[in-house]
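Look at one such:
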Amino acid sequence: MSTSPSKKLDTFDNAIPERDYTIHIETPEFTCLCPMTGQPDFATIKVDYVPDQKCVELKSFKLYLWSYRDEGAFHEKVTNQILDDLVAATDPRFMRVTGVFNVRGGVFTNVVAEHHKQGWIAPTPVQLP
């Protein structure tokens, strides 16, 4: 596997496709460039998903995020692009990508984008006493 930035997301077979379970991925080291100023933007990217047949391979995900380092991208666009690319690679039952962008000029930006597979209904959470 490469160690250079790449837009390619590798996957592997879900070992338990018959069960709904959540995978949480979080990285505090995302960077891209502000398309207006060219200054770096820093963010924590959080991914929560219920896989179907495929899971994303983590090293390829790291290299994928790294590929944004020298690209200009608005927070809203880049968060939705990450979701679109992950959905295209894994076809999950559910996925949420959250971009928590560092403060700049006293303004915080959090962007949340979601995908729900057609026909998939989230299980009802168990209520504990």
Notes: DSSP finds two helices and six strands in the chain. The helical segments are 58-66, 75-90.
